[in-house]
Write a structure and sequence with these properties.
The complex is a heterodimer of chains A (620) and B (86).
Chain A lengths: L6 E6 L4 E6 L2 H7 L2 H12 L13 E4 L14 E6 L6 E6 L3 H8 L3 E5 L6 E6 L2 E6 L8 H12 L5 E4 L2 H4 L7 E3 L3 E3 L4 H7 L2 E7 L9 H16 L3 H10 L5 H6 L18 H5 L3 H5 L3 E5 L9 E6 L7 E5 L5 H4 L9 H14 L3 H16 L18 H13 L2 H7 L3 H8 L8 E2 L2 E2 L9 H8 L13 H4 L4 H4 L6 H17 L5 H4 L4 H10 L5 H21 L31 H12 L9 H6 L6 H4 L3
Parallel strand pairs in A: 1-6, 7-12
Antiparallel strand pairs in A: 1-2, 3-4, 3-6, 4-5, 7-8, 9-10, 9-12, 10-11, 13-14, 14-15, 16-17
Helix pairs in contact in A: 1-2, 2-21, 2-24, 7-23, 13-15, 15-16, 18-25, 21-24, 21-25
Chain B lengths: L1 E7 L11 E4 L6 H11 L8 H7 E5 L2 E3 L10 E6 L5
Parallel strand pairs in B: 1-5
Antiparallel strand pairs in B: 1-2, 3-4, 3-5
The chains are: A alpha+beta (620), B alpha+beta (86).
The structure holds iron/sulfur cluster.
The site of iron/sulfur cluster has 12 residues of chain A, from loops.
């Protein structure tokens, strides 16, 4: 089989048993890889309504066919599990070098059930599986853990996907990390890993995937390289130089990034002068020591910072924060102290927290304390009020180190905290209990739909029209009529990006229409245009079915009132907007083939050759 | 009429730093300015003009406005284009 190793590995940590199964070619063609293939396999492997932390709960690491295929931008690997946050399907992907090395280790997917008696890490060395004691690593932060494992194995090139203390403590905000600072962050898969007492999955190997037509990939690669020097040179100079951080200042001023926990207006509550500090070149100045690129990436959107002699602890190897963390740890808390923002981002990477949920949670606490909903003692006496960057650091450190009331209240995120004190719900900005990314859903109905009605809620990286049109004219972005077909088109495309192992940034240098050519060149599968569209639809529906089988229905996909402009906003660009996500979602659900209750119709399941789901969703 | 413009976009091009003067015909609207900007950085934004117009907006004198907003002599305009990701 081209593009695949053809093997799946199943591990039970309770008795350390191992089973290798063949990957069926039809399953590979229908589900490609990543979240789609992961959902297909977990659907079979996990009984309905399995608690996320039960021994029967399965955690999967899944490659896409582009991983290790030397396709530009094709290195993203995926972790799949049930989410502790919203008790539904979860997938999250990471970049770096783990994906290609995972491929070289010999499996298309590794699926782990059971609970280890003591902390353990799994080492897959060219197909061979070894369980190694991790008692001495339990409690270590991510970078020291990576270093210790490499030293222990005597190989600086092994790749490690791991959890930090956040995952060990089963925080619902825990990420799975790799390459020091790459995070498969969202939805709490790190907690699932922690519940299994699995500190790390370590991979090494020399296996290769065969490609169906290498010459097509080479041709596309050559054109991309030429474009980088020619027509796309400016994109290289910007996206390649500043990465996602390059959008921070513009996003905040456009009221797309959060200001004052999503209740503030740009220019009024966060000025242009304040925003200047978020300019990517200002961030890089005096801090950036080198560029960082994932495997097989010609763009290299990352950077490594060194921060010394400032008002925060020295950081020798800190990642330049991605866009999400920049407003998240500054304008959202109404200050522009970028050193403290970089430090909080670094803390999250070291302790293994998802930055998006983490900063959303601290901002929620800031608003609640400022409004008197929380009392000073709830936050150990720390004066976490608007604009207090120092207090933001103190609270963040306490959550990370599991100290005091700060950690007890906030370690599982803002919704969990509000539910536990039965207050502060007005200040939440969550979908199904997970904090939203730094793209304001009130800017476009479609963005709201993507956040709310999606098997993994709260993600800006899932498909839909909303993200692309959110700054466009009102008549487009707030229109809810006749949107279904286009919405499904965008959803399908993004599903295929994620399932194949592509990085979302590939569109900057390569046209979206090349994706089908690349996937076909790698896998040798051929799809008609309609089959290709349905490939993406199948991925979405498979992920949806995982939660639907457990009984999740439309009304379970909740969104905080503030996200849909309730109460109505009276100042700034969002004043007076009418956001009708429900009508938009009606159009989407109908077009993709779901009932108004957000479960797939029988006819769609038959069309997608997913009849195995029908008895679960339609028992009568 | 003459307005001053700065750009915070993925590709800031010729409007790169600070507020620079830009001449526009009387009656021009935000959309005209966005189109003029797009045309001034040919092929460099990696998207069609229509896509750019859907991903960009402008703050006129510190108020974010729609594309149909008329511009006036002396206006200070910030062109904003968001980026995805992170
Ligand atoms: S664009 Fe950035 S995140 Fe994407 S593959 Fe390249 S370096 Fe990695």
């Amino acid at each position: 089989m081209y593009g695949y190793l053809g093997k799946l590995l199943f591990i039970d940590l309770t008795d350390q048993s191992v089973e290798v199964r063949d990957l069926d070619e039809k399953m590979a063609r229908d589900y490609l890889g990543g979240p789609a293939l992961g959902a297909r396999i977990l659907y079979d492997e996990m009984p309905a309504n399995t608690p996320w932390d039960a021994p029967e709960s399965v955690l999967g690491f899944v490659r896409g066919p582009l991983n290790g295929a030397s396709a530009f931008f094709g290195s993203r690997w995926t972790v799949v599990s049930k989410s502790p946050v919203y008790n539904g399907w979860n997938d999250a992907n990471g970049g770096g070098f783990f994906g290609p090395t995972f491929t070289a280790a010999g499996y298309d997917g590794v699926f782990i059930r059971g609970i280890s008696e003591a902390p353990v890490y799994i080492f897959i060395d060219n197909g061979k599986v070894e369980f190694r004691d991790a008692t001495h690593l339990w409690g270590l932060t991510t970078m020291p853990t990576e270093a210790a494992i490499r030293e222990e194995l005597g190989d600086p090139n092994v790749q490690v996907a791991l959890i930090g203390p956040a995952g060990e403590r089963l925080s619902h905000m825990a990420a799975v990390m790799n390459d020091s600072h790459r995070a498969a962050g969202r939805g709490g898969s790190g907690a699932v890993m922690g519940s299994k007492r699995l500190k790390a999955l370590v991979v090494r190997g020399s296996q290769h995937v065969e490609m169906a037509d290498r010459s097509i990939l080479d041709r596309i690669g050559r054109t991309t390289v030429e474009d980088m020097k020619g027509s796309k040179a400016n994109i290289m100079a910007n996206r390649g130089r500043f990465g996602t951080a390059g959008g921070a200042m513009g996003n905040v001023l456009a009221n797309n990034g959060s200001i004052k926990n999503w209740a503030g207006a740009s220019h009024t509550d966060f000025t242009e002068e304040q925003a200047e500090a978020l300019n990517a070149s200002a961030l890089d100045e005096g801090r950036r020591v080198r560029k960082y690129a994932c495997a097989a990436c010609p763009l290299g959107c990352g950077a490594i910072y060194e921060v010394k002699g400032r008002e925060v602890p020295d950081m020798e190897h800190a990642a330049r924060p991605e866009y999400e963390a920049i407003p998240g740890f500054t304008s959202m808390m109404q200050h522009n102290d970028v050193d403290r923002m970089i430090y909080c981002n670094h803390l999250c990477n070291e302790y293994g927290f998802d930055t998006i949920s983490f900063c959303g949670t601290v901002a929620w606490a800031m608003e609640c304390l400022s409004d008197g909903v929380l009392k000073p003692e709830d936050l150990d006496g720390i004066d976490l009020r608007w604009g207090n960057a120092k207090a933001m650091v103190e609270v963040s450190e306490r959550i990370c180190r599991d100290e005091g009331n700060c950690a007890a209240l906030l370690k599982n995120g803002s919704q969990y905290a509000a539910d536990s004190i039965k207050a502060g719900h007005y200040a939440l900005f969550c979908a199904s209990g997970i904090e939203l990314a730094q793209h304001d859903p009130r800017l476009a109905c479609g963005l709201g739909r993507t956040y709310q009605y999606e098997p993994t809620p709260g993600r800006h990286v899932k498909g839909g029209r909303g993200l692309a049109i959110r700054l466009g004219p009102d008549e487009i972005k707030y229109n809810c009529r006749m949107i279904g077909f286009d919405e499904v088109t965008e959803v399908s495309k993004r599903e295929i990006v994620n399932a194949s192992g592509y990085c979302m940034s590939y569109t900057y240098l390569m046209g979206a229409d090349l994706m089908k050519n690349v996937i076909e060149a790698v896998t040798g599968f051929h799809y008609t245009a309609m089959e290709f569209r349905m490939l993406g639809v199948r991925s979405f529906i498979m992920r949806l079915c995982f939660g639907a089988r457990d009984g999740l229905r439309r009304s379970d996909y909740t969104i905080s009132p503030r996200c849909i402009s309730e109460p109505k906003i009276t100042t700034g660009r969002l004043a007076g907007i009418v956001l009708d996500i429900e009508s938009y979602a009606d159009g989407f659900m109908d077009a993709i083939g779901c009932t108004p209750d957000f479960i797939p119709k029988k006819e769609l399941l038959k069309l997608l050759e997913m009849e195995f789901v029908i008895p679960d969703l339609y028992p009568d | 009429m003459e307005i001053t413009v700065t750009v915070r976009a993925m590709c800031s091009g010729s409007f790169a730093s600070g507020y620079a003067p830009v001449s526009l015909p009387e009656g021009a609207r935000v959309r005209d300015l966005l189109e003029q900007y797009y045309d001034s950085v040919p092929g460099q934004l990696g998207m069609t003009k229509e896509e750019f117009l859907q991903s960009a907006s402008a703050a006129v004198n510190q108020n974010i406005t729609g594309h149909d907003t008329p511009l006036q002599d002396g206006d200070k305009v910030l062109i904003l284009q968001t980026a995805e990701g992170g």
